[in-house]
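We modelled each protein-ligand pair independently. The example shown here corresponds to the magnesium ion entry; the chain sequence is given first, followed by the ligand as SMILES.
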Amino acid sequence: MEDEILGKAYDGRLMRRLLAYLRPYRGQAIVALVATIAASALALVQPYLMKVAIDRYIAQGDLAGLNTIAVLFLLVLVGSLAFEYVQTFIMQMIGQRIMFDMRMQIYGHLQRLDLRFYDRNPVGRLMTRVTTDVDVLNDLFTSGVIAVFDDVFTLAGIMVVLLVMNWKLALVSFSVLPLIVLVTQWFRRNVRDSYRTVRVWIARINAYLQENISGMSTVQLFRREAQNYARFDEIDRGHRDANVASIFYYAVFYPAIEVVGALAASLIIWYGGGRVIQGALTLGSLVAFIQYSSRFYRPISDMSEKFNLLQAAMASSERIFALLDTRVVVENPAAPRQAAGGSGHIVFDHVWFAYRGEDWVLRDVSFEVAPGERVAIVGATGAGKSTIVNLLLRFYDVGRGRILVDGVDIREMELDALRRLFSLVLQDVQLFSGTIASNIRLGNTDITDAQVRSAADAVHAGRFIDRLPQGFDTAVAERGATLSVGQKQLLSFARALAFAPQILVLDEATSSVDTETELLIRDALRVLMGGRTTVAIAHRLSTIQDMDKILVLHKGEVRESGSHQQLLAARGIYYRLYQLQYRDQELRAVARTDAR
Ligand SMILES: Nc1ncnc2c1ncn2[C@@H]1O[C@H](COP(=O)(O)OP(=O)(O)OP(=O)(O)O)[C@@H](O)[C@H]1O
Ligand SMILES: [Mg+2]
């Protein structure tokens, strides 16, 4: 719900930090500021020229003078137009550049944050940071910061001019100001509340859509369309009603300001007209007065809108800065050490780990994988197998103990150097939009087309790729939706092989594929593991019998280790697991014969 909190309208600390983004463009900003002030100054001159035209030339019947003043008026108009153009163009440009800088900064920071952060933050929320929140700040820079100067300058300028022209009449026209203050206060308070409500509903719409679009097949399978439609109808209705409510305030506010302005104008005509008749005021001054006062109320209503903008920007920047201030926990060491030799030697040395507090998921795990050795990790669901992989690749840092790769604590290694050693194959293959080939080489230009081809062939992926319409150049849909699970698995093997890592890490690589594909995959694995240090997590014991060593993980502890034969002979956990699966297989075999 943090998305919906609106904090203070103005926070100096946040504002200073926001303005720092303007710093690279301060030269341009100054030009825009000067253009703004020039434009508003020229706008201020117009009613005065009107007064001069009426009093000095129309009243005297001076046609030549009237021509001059008309030309002057035109020049002033063109001038203020030009300045306004400069100001608008520069400010929009600066706004776009700041948005660009900010998005790059946020994205860069997101790339450095560790998995613990992503465990806590749903994707939708992070998307909002990079898109909507940045947009709100853009509004602040393009129509807020500089435009406020414009408004303040115009207001002050008009006040001074009016007071100088005729202070009594000026006071008469200012007499409506308390009304303006009242209307503005009312508007500000209500619009802020309705803005908040609208944000709440937008957040709900986003969350609901995100979940329901990605889960569409489940929705359809369980025939939840009607219920979900009704639920969305409710949310959408709430959103519409909240917006309609805020329209009401706008619809009342602007006419109300107009009415107050008209009231001021009639006061000026009533009082000023009397003075003109008495000869205490010129007709030109009266006209100028009316014009000035009509320009007086626009900046006021603008400013109350900008107040809302400011408030929204404060809330957005607070969230953006909170994200940018999130400490990067898994960090590159200050003085990285190079792993000597790089033979792929892994040591877990009394490793403890918890995702939360003292809730230990791994307890005192110690084991060693010699260079070139193939080690399997087995254990029940939730035993902590994937956690071991997460720690080895430093997606999380260990709680206690240490992990050594080639004799160096992985926390002392450059992250890039560490991860370069590994290829990780997960059951849930992550594909990106692009082509088959681009998904194998993942943007690594060192991998040639020939290498992509031979990696694919080596793991038996070449055959299905060749059957695709454009072979290796076939487009891959988002998340690889157009490929089967087995095909994605083979692709990820090809990817792992193309990167030719020192150490191969497999997590449940052989579940959920048909027998034929499993055979292909098993063969592909042999290719992949050839001569490499391998850590493989497997559920099916049948696939790991020829591994050099098997570790049995139970409730976060390594309870047994040894070869398949040794573990069977020990008659421990592994033996029981094996018997269970073996019996299962036997039963299935019996069932098959029965069916025939
Ligand atoms: N990101 C996380 N945040 C909090 N707890 C987690 C997280 N990931 C895993 N856990 C917990 O840690 C424990 C070990 O999970 P892990 O994924 O390592 O199990 P696993 O052995 O790989 O199981 P499986 O065979 O089902 O894949 C589980 O109890 C799980 O609930
Ligand atoms: Mg797992």
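The longest helix spans residues 225-278.
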